[in-house]
Protein 1
Amino acid sequence: MYESYYGLTSKPFQLTPDPAFFFASKLHKRAMSYLQYGLSQAEGFIVITGDIGTGKTTIANSLLDDMEQDIFAAQIVTPKLNPDELIKMVASKFELDVVNKSKSDLLEDIEYFLSGLAGQGKRALLLVDEAQNLPLETIEELRMLSNFQKAGKPLLQSFLLGQAELQPILRAPNMEQFRQRIVASCHLAPLNRDESIEYIEYRMHHAGYNGNKLFSDDAYTAIYEFSKGVPRKMNTLMDRVLLFGFLEEIEQFALDDVQSVIDEVKAEMFLPEDISDSALPRNTDIPADNSDRFTHKGTQIREAEYYKKMLFELVDALDDAIKHKIKLTQYIDRLLKKKYKAYVRLKTDDD
Ligand SMILES: Nc1ncnc2c1ncn2[C@@H]1O[C@H](COP(=O)(O)OP(=O)(O)O)[C@@H](O)[C@H]1O
Ligand SMILES: [Mg+2]
């Protein structure tokens, strides 16, 4: 909607991890080199961790995008897979028939497939995204897969991408054998202020922007402070900021402009603040004579109460969001009418 107003050829802040928009910050560059180095090792595991939205999937997609022809890459995004499901998933990603096959059949087929690839001078890469969801036994199964060899050369290499929770999983004492197979690992942190500004400008230019400086310094600071330098948060906010700019016909954003968008976005966010046990209602929320309060049942009651409360809050928040959307639509409507009238006036003046 705002693209033509700002002279853009595409939307600069899409949420899909698009390799064409890859911005190589210092950390992203380093992570990319690790992945490339890992690839050249052709064995073991590469692990990339990082908080939600810091760019793990984007990096992986960029890597897959410019990968050599001789690598057969399969990408898995894992819900909580058990070891058997993992094997099935891997087999199907390698385009093998999985119907009515036992696990040992599948393992045999996978080995046959991998060794066939090696025979053609190719190799296989398994990219496991959201790997923090994998149970320990499944990670162990992955390790077993990495044991396949032909003439002393490993047949499969894996990359694990996961949120910070993946780190303690891999640090577990019984994961020693797995750890020995890690050839490189790194952690993606959010961008710092300067990098965040570069990130925004990079994406804007990449989407075709070539006008004047669009944001004042303190407007940038507000964007950075709100998004904490997390690319996904920046994308969501920036999309709204540009829409606001188009509606308000803003040519350079001042702090106040950005702040009003941040206030709107904040009002629309309905994330639970803390769903850890400490956030659960305390025993005082249960009738005093409830003898179950310290038992399993007591905990269940507390949880049910808590989720009920949370659902009510969610309903309120959704109501607010709908009201807000209606307001926004009405606003856009009015604006379009205004623009249309101005256009008709200009046209009659011309005639
Ligand atoms: N280095 C980067 N260059 C360009 N865009 C990025 C970069 N890192 C993250 N993004 C953007 O941020 C959003 C979230 O990135 P994503 O890779 O999905 O994060 P993660 O997998 O770590 O949760 C995506 O919209 C993506 O386009
Ligand atoms: Mg991801």
Note: The longest helix spans residues 296-350.
Protein 2
Amino acid sequence: MFSIKKEDEVMILSGKYKGIKSKVIGVLHKKYSVLLKNINLRKKRNKNNKNSIQENESPIYLSKVILICKKCNKTVRPKFNIENGKKIRVCRHCNQIIL
Ligand SMILES: [Zn+2]
């Protein structure tokens, strides 16, 4: 199970975006990657309008990002607890549930 999901705040651990915080806008399970808002933009020409260039986010490997706990604002690899048959993420620092 992925420890990171859409709408999470994450920090990038390596590469040219190292240390930058961003928001997860998509998770690509098959590629083991995430899309981060305004990170790793690739220019793409608009097929219908040759003068217009679109910028789209390209995936970044999950291993390059770490979750930021919204409660204590620290980076964390969350642990998983089972509650009512559901897996929930728990911060190792403040022990709060990460939704
Ligand atoms: Zn925390």
Note: The domain at 1-68 is CATH 2.30.30.30 (SH3 type barrels.).
Protein 3
Amino acid sequence: MVMNPTSKFVKVVCVRCGNNQIVFGKSSIKVKCSKCNKLLVKTGGGKIKIKTLVREVLR
Ligand SMILES: [Zn+2]
């Protein structure tokens, strides 16, 4: 899933361990799962690429 630049928070679920984690939609850093260290979000060109399941987009 590729998201346009946004200032939303996105709740993602780690596909490996099921951990819920909230990431900022405009983050410029990679986000890893706080439990198992799986890469959840990649970045590039001002967009984030979510590499795991999106549970909810928070507004
Ligand atoms: Zn995990």
Note: Residues 2-58 form a domain with the N-terminal domain of TfIIb fold (CATH 2.20.25.100).
